[in-house]
Structures
1.
Amino acid sequence: MKNWRKKAPLKKTGNRHFKHFKGGYRQSGTRAKILKMKPGADTTLKKVFATIGVPDKKPFTPDRFQIKALNAIESGDCLVTAPTGAGKTWVAIKAVARIFENGGRAWYASPLKALTNAKYTEFSAVFGDSNLGILTGDRRENPDAPIIIGTTEILRNQLYDAMHRGEILETDFVVLDEAHFLGDEDRGVVWEEIMIYLPSRIPLLMLSATIGNAHQIAAWLAQIRNKKCHIVAEKKRPVPLQPLFLHPSGTILPLVTPHSHNRKKTRLHKKVQAYLNMPKPPLLAPPHKLPQFGKILRVLDKYNLLPAIFFLKSRADCDNALDLCTSKMRRDPTRHANLNNRIDVLTSGNAYLDKHRQLKYLAENAVGAHHSGQLPAWKLVLETLMQEGLLKAIFATSTVAAGVNFPARTIVLSNSDRFNGRDFLPLTSTEFHQMTGRAGRRGMDRIGFAIALPGKYMDIRLMAELSTAPPSAIFSQIKINFSMVLNLLLSHTPDQITDLLAHSFAAFLMMRNRHSTVSKQKSAETRQYLENDFRRHLNFLRATYFVTDDGVLTDDGRWTSQLRVDQPLMIAEGFRLRLFPESDPVLLSAIIAAFVNEREMNSQFEQGHLPENLEDAFYKIKRNLRPFVQKMYKQGFAIRVLYMRPAAAMYAWASGQSWEETLAIAEMAEGDLAMLIFRSADNLRHIQALAHVFPEAAATAKQAVKLILKYPVVMDYDNNEE
């Protein structure tokens, strides 16, 4: 086989074909007019803009939903759904404090490392560093502390370990933040596993954005955990939101008519409707070009709508937007001086940050680009400046909407769809409300704004509908994988696992309508599908001697279960065949990077440009794993292609080449390279756990982690692994 993975045919992606797109541009081939932008606002907005300002300072008083949630967790589990910024974390802190004061232990799980780090800082201010630990793929500090802040994957792994050892998870209370991730296509399975495996004796507090089927989630949890799950819902935003539309002339219009939320159908403002009905509406920019963001900022500045977060469709657009912010705006000398002083403080002593290519935009225009293509340290500078109110605008991808405390007075939407890693799909109401949840800073704003920009990838009517739409429902994303099967077999028989899968949220949803024959049939099909997929994985594990015919893990199966990584069987087979360079940390980190990489890459190198030992090790792995790969492929399991380029980049980085040289070899954005390094380090840590079977490889993996986690990928890392 030339490639290990058969390429799927290209798909049309979501709403990127606009002939039928009801609120987008009608691209008929004729040139549309680009208007000269002059700041203006519809007269009906005069009263709205008059409410802009900072609310009066008042002593903090908990909202009713916060008190209700604290009381509810005393008698069962609790699902709190509330808009972004409503104060869900306050509930968690008070609930954890109550456990802590009574001598108990608590676990706070969040989906993102950045959010976990932020919560760690927030909780430290309340409970003190000595009482707090943090566990992520990159940080392991004070793991025996009574209060642990960590990622959901770490909590799930601890549940696996507790079930295997027949022990009780050492905590008395669990908080699952961003619980709507239960419906995330890629990671929702982790949330669902936690909810299924968590002992019912441990109270569960779930914090979520508003979701449309909270009652179904609560009923499912009550069924599988044999205890009541209270729902505490808060629909009111802490800061009211005003949806707006920016006409290409520079005039700000209301997006919808007043009181649209009281109507059965959202009504566009008549002037917006008139714009959409034009045969050739004027544009903000020529097709495939970005608008002059500096001119848009001048409009927002005139009406006191800054700071703003612009959500753009790609990382390149975010970077390119900075060059389009040249229009002069009002400059407050004091604020500008404060900004530059803070920039000096945040970048001092860091040669990488001090010479960052985007530093001039930050210092001169108070604007920045924030996306996953950048290093964590630079993103932290932007987040800090934005939180301190020193920036006028941030251009960001939609990833900022989830998990980063990044408030602004206004958010600006340039497209009505979102890339999920594979396709462009229309925004759901939950995604829309999560993004607009950043508009209006609690305690700093009396009102927030969401502005829709007309453009090729913008459905204005959809934006209007989403502005008044109820939250969307979320559904089960449970799926079987080899790591799950291996870890469950540590403590369960195959029959017990099939019973466990019957407790899935997917099976529950299908069973809800007991009077529907179709529903019962679908429920049976769902349960059968999960069971069949489990058996398919189990049979492959038997055929490859990770599991006995009786469904018990072999010795190889037991140590492979500790490889809680994306490709556990591939890496395990490599170790079984002694293919990995177990005594060379540079080579080991390079080979592991090839297994971690998910991107299709150009692996062509000029002859003589690759180290000979790397070539030998890489092709030895590919050649000797091919029979195992073919077995997996024939059974329908997904296989990733191994590319040389990520291995070559990691080899260069681990062997001491500069960041710039490594980037040139990697041919990827620095944030993507940093993520490759972080994930490789995480895989290497799992190899460290195999010290009882492969002591030399485990020791080498520990050395490899130290080699690759260094400046500028990490800025303050002591590398003292326990």
2.
Amino acid sequence: MPKANTEQRKLAAIMFTDMVGYSALSQRNEKLAQELLEEHRALLRPLFPKFNGTEIKTIGDAFLVEFHSALEAAQCGIEIQRALAHRNHDVSPERLVELKIGIHIGDVVHRGGDVYGDGVNIASRIEPLAGAGGICVSMDVERQIRNALEARFEKLAPTELKNISVAMDLFRIVLPWEEAKAEGKWQKEQFNADTRRGVPPSGAGVLKLVAVAAVVLLAVGLGWWLVHQSGLKTKSIASSSTNASSSSTLPSAAPATDQKSIAVLPFVNMSADKADEYLSDGISEELITALSKITGLQVKARTSSFAFKGKNEDIQKIGEQLHVSHLLEGSVAKAGNKLRITAQLIKISDGNHLWSDTYDREMQDIFAVRSEVAQQVAATLKIRLLGEDRQRLDQKPTENLEAYNLYRQGRYYYEKFTEDGYKKAIGFFQQTIEKDPRFALAYAGVADNFVLAADLLIAPREAFSKAKDAALKAIELDDTLAEAHASLGMVHYHYDWDWAAAEKEFQRALALNPQSAQSHSLYSEYLVGMGRFDEAYDQGRRALEIDPLSPMANWYLGWAFLFAGRSDQAIQQLSKAVELDLNAGWVRSFLGRSYLIKGMQQRGIEELEIARRVAPNNPFALGYLGYGYAVADRRSDALKALQSLDVMEKQQYVSRMARVYIYAGLGDKDKAFEWLEKAYQERSDALAWFRLDPEAKNLRSDPRFATLMRKIGFTEP
């Protein structure tokens, strides 16, 4: 921002937002009005930087935000209205938060920390014309974004704006959940305020919603249009906060299906050699990645799609579980250097095959096939590919086929999320780099691998140092790799204790790939660690929208509830994760911790004991169990857990933090702080969240706790 005594003139896109009915609500119920005002600010502020927006100031219940481009401003406006639609769909009428948004691009002057000029004045005059839940843009904005934004525009009557000499042509962006009405395929219906479902009201007068099409009415009854957009190493965070904002509750109903949404089922390995399964899985993942790059197409993440691997499920059932309108399935056969890939696109509502094709190619043509299939899917679904989309689809990660095969094998073992898988994966990733030192994805794989293993299988100093070097190398080779930025964010968060740098990398990852469930989950973890629970819930829900059948996505959201002190919701969410993977030791551990916090000690210990059985080499699982024994007055069992850690340490690496939990449960503060200091010297990643850990509650009042927290960058305990 320019200094107070300087001026800077430039072209910028300006957004004004305004809460509908805030003044009237303040007069009726000042406390509620203030609560909703702060909630809306907490919801909007994280969205601005995702689109390179800079908050200039707030004016009561309004925001003034500057963007580099009209497109980024419009995309941010749509994301704001989408987030509010999601937030409003399950709240009572008096708690609705509706915004009007105006956007203009023009000359502005920066002076004294503020912004002036026609660009600002016109944007402020446009905003009231947007209507509740709407976005109004000037003709200058519409011209710049109409060919780049997947949206329709409605032209308003020429409008004379206050203190603006010439009548202006203005446009209203037709939001995705309104598009069906514009296409004439849907019918309107009076909203019943007691029925809380679907997209929320967008007007201040008579409330209306969009009803589903007649075909869907016959098949599944009345539903509502909702648009959604957008294991890893599990880290524990805790908090005594009991924030129960309405924006943080889980949706009460499953989201309706977007008509331009797809899941890629695992392609079947038809090769004679069953070891070639890595290739069929890899092609499926390549297609998921490629389709995710198409603007306007919602793609489900790998974990959810691969939940159906080897199963003969009915396609309607798959569609219902994944909330998608289309499936892409196929097979891969490899013979020497020859490939035969078949692919077919299926419409779930009627089971019709919309398109199918067979590709007989050489192995080196695998990326061309990926691009062709993705483009054919877009064409069949009538999605117009932008030039940028085509460029991303055609981009090859490497020209070295042998390196690509090694990389795909590394990812195959990495996705198993086992100790053996990590060890095999790192070997393949390192071989990949030897074959092609400029293969950026391979370095990202190395970074992911070491982040997952840090403080669990490998000492954090060693693991995070290697992860950081690999992530930085990947970014150096390809700055557009979302995976590398997410891994670097994890390093900054868990190891460097550089909170600002970590958030910057997470936001960069999501800007590059808004459909990355992994990045949303990791950002959620970070936000919980910072105590920003409402934002964490939102990121956790976004991850679940993209990856609904992922145990880890469910786990991350359950984690957020747990450490906000919302044990009932934590138990509900973590139980869903357990249903998806009965042998997920980390999930069992956190479910057990949730029961302990709720006061259900016996049930908590039962879950912690299961976690210990399914993950016998996980020192944290043993540490949590020892804590459970201690708080349940089973002191001898807690001491045995400490002895077991001593035995374990002779066979493998054991995090210094594992013993801290047991000593905290036993009330032995001196021993707890002794091991906390060792964890600090080791730079244990668990310290990044221990400040808020529920097991740390008996240590927080000790002056040594505040001293330790300051050493890792927290000014307040």
